[in-house]
Amino acid sequence: MAATTAATVIPADHSIWGRIAAGVATLLIAVARALDFGARWRWHLNMRARYAILLDRVDKVDLLPADVRADALGQIYDDLSKVRSLERGIPGSGTASTVQQTGS
Fold first, then answer.
1. Residues 100, 86 contacting (CB under 8 angstroms)
2. In 1-104, at which residue ranges do the beta strands (DSSP E only) sit?
3. Residues 6+ apart with CB under 8 A from 56
4. What's the chain's average pLDDT?
5. Calpha distance 21→27 (Å, rounded)
6. DSSP secondary structure string, the chain?
7. Residue 58's pLDDT band (boundaries 50, 70, 90)?
8. Tens digit of pLDDT for each residue in 9-26?
9. Of 21, 26, 79, 87, which one is least surrounded by beta carbons within 10 A?
10. Average pLDDT of the residues in 39-61
């Protein structure tokens, strides 16, 4: 953004600096798109939220009656394995990213 803005506001007397700023902006935009940072950022936020949900469910187990705790922990472990299987789907890493829902 800064390089694009600089290329726009630099006076015509300093056109070489405007061209350099435009070139830098073009390069940075191309790199960001090639590396797919936007999708990776969203993917990491999504994964962080999934793990937070699992941690909340682990905290809730202490509130459950003793006779259902084992079943609840088994369900959490099954959901953890589903979330862990999504780790291989980082966008831009060469594998397709698929979105799956975990139990809540």
1. yes
2. none
3. none
4. 82
5. 10
6. -HHHHHHHHS-GGGHHHHHHHHHHHHHHHHHHHHHTHHHHHHHHHHHHHHHHHHHHHHHHHTTS-HHHHHHHHHHHHHHHHHHHHGGGG-TTTTS-----PPP-
7. very high
8. 676 677 777 778 778 888
9. 87
10. 93
CA distance 99 to 86: 8
Joined tokens for residue 79: 């959901």
Burial class (CB in 10 A: 0-12, 13-18, 19+), 18: middle
At residue 79, the 3 state secondary structure works out as: helix
This prediction has a pTM of 0.58
Mean pLDDT of 55-73: 95
